[in-house]
Amino acid sequence: MNNLVEFRKDLVSGDWVLISAQKSKKPVFFTHEPSKALPKSKCPFENIVQSEQGKNLLWLPKKGKSDIKDWWVRVYLNEYPILITNKTCSPVIQEGLFFHTPGNGFQELVVMRDHARSFGLMTKEEIKIILESYILRYNALAGEPCVEFILILHNSGPRAGASVPHPHSQIFALPIIPPDVSRSLNGSKHYFNRTKRCVHCDMLRLEIREKKRIIYQNNSFIVVAPYASKVSYETRIFPKKHEPRFEIIDSRHKDDLADAMRVVLSKIYKNLKDPDYNFFIHTSPPKTRRSKHYHWHMEILPRIAIWGGLELGAGIDVVKVSPEEAAKILRK
């Protein structure tokens, strides 16, 4: 049981959870002081030599460069995955009352070159290259027969779940639709069936009219503090034009998304004094063709507060800074 990796279905809620005993083997490269990282010399992502080229799933250089020694972003399989890398499609198995399926899937690391420069300190062009790597790997994984959802995420800092201080993102290709995504998809679909309109488009029209929770916007994207934020200073980046799928954005939209990310993440870095944070992309599942009702977006959640009994026991998020005040602070 020490190497158990499987998805289990909660009989009451219907939500899937991942049981992964392998995670206990993963080393942690932070000291016991949460804000202090171990020296650069001990970072596992430093000094990536040319002899490791065979491990690359993808590498991209900065503009005008073409040699691997000039890489800016590099993607490879996670050495300490919480999933089992397996292309075999496994059925859901029932044992008595309970349901489970093997924890198969893919888990990739997207590693940035600079050890000490988080997204809040990157240029628009640097972020755009990272977005290109996300899209290329998303489309490669979407063709895998057993993949039902692909989650692109970034953990920054130990309070956000990062075990390595060096900036890196992760891509999870899963055999299930995760519970939070499933709720989002179902809520969007319910609203569309009732009104024949996109719920996110309606919310964005209201935000643009009221202007109270807008942090930033450019030609293609808008950044808002959600009306019902889950954490203090939560921000979301939406394409202004309705689009269900992140992975099909073109070069112009990539440029505008990189600009929106640069602005909001630099504001979070400066105005909140470089907090730990998570961001992730919610998009339509790759094999779902009936999801025109959905509107893809990026969610950014600073990890400022610690969950207590009300959050854990009742599932009620307690937000101590109003979205209106958060937007005002982050607009500075």
UniProtKB/TrEMBL annotation:
Question: Which domain of life does this protein belong to?
Answer: Bacteria
One GO MF annotation is: UDP-glucose:hexose-1-phosphate uridylyltransferase activity
List the cofactors. Zn(2+)
Q: Which UniProt keywords apply?
A: Carbohydrate metabolism, Metal-binding, Nucleotidyltransferase, Transferase, Zinc
The active site is formed by: H168 (tele-ump-histidine intermediate)
Transferase found in the keyword field: yes
Which InterPro entries does this UniProt record tie to the protein?
ADP-glucose_phosphorylase (IPR053177), GalP_UDPtransf1 (IPR001937), GalP_Utransf_C (IPR005850), GalP_Utransf_N (IPR005849), HIT-like_sf (IPR036265)
Which segments constitute the Galactose-1-phosphate uridyl transferase C-terminal domain? 189-299
Q: Which GO terms describe its biological process?
A: galactose metabolic process
Describe the location of the Galactose-1-phosphate uridyl transferase N-terminal domain by residue ranges. Answer: 95-178
The entry's family comment says:
Belongs to the galactose-1-phosphate uridylyltransferase type 1 family.
Full protein name: Uncharacterized protein
Q: Give the source species.
A: Candidatus Giovannonibacteria bacterium RIFCSPLOWO2_01_FULL_45_34
